[in-house]
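Researcher: I'd like a structural prediction for the single chain below. Treat it as a standalone chain; there are no partners to consider.
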Amino acid sequence: MSPLAVIDCSTPVPSSEAAADLDLLAAFLEDRALPDFGRAAAAALINAFGGLAGVAAADAAALARAGVPSGTVADLVRARALALVMVRVEACRRPVLSSWKALTAYLRADLAHAPREQFRTLYLDKRNILMRDEHRADGTIDHAPVYVREVVRRALELSASAMILVHNHPSGDPTPSRADIDMTRRIVDAARVFDIQVHDHVIVGREGTKSFRALGLI
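Model: Treating it as a single chain, here is the predicted structure.
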């Protein structure tokens, strides 16, 4: 076995990896002895959700609508929750600004394939350790309402010293919109009044992530 496996996400998924994804999903379906719901059904689900990651990110209702039996839905939901715990632990282990890759890995695992837009706020303590990751809004395929007052009020309740704003673009393209930029500036201005720093705003999509700080927007 090679001591290091390198995954290049900029290239198409090799056929061997696609076959492995198919085998993995089929194993979930076949473990419950469903003779008519095995490898062929796994291929249909991967096609319907745009890949294994899309299947893993789908909520229970979407899986049920696709015909996945309830027991298997529960298995998939638990597997995703376990995977998120693993990447979240890494993100919480060290100061966020010095473990940025771990943080973005967690955010991508949780949000890259979400079918609806979500706005989240990461509240940090004075050491920049992640205190809380909170949903602030759920939205539609292209909009999640954000209330600046509520974002800042919660930071004060938690005695947070800093925040990182996060939301996803279900379209896949993480490029900030004009509305994203304007909303971020309103939150930055409101937080500054209370000496709370907004370190960044990260947009997550299937195509990757975009950092407002890296783009010079904060």
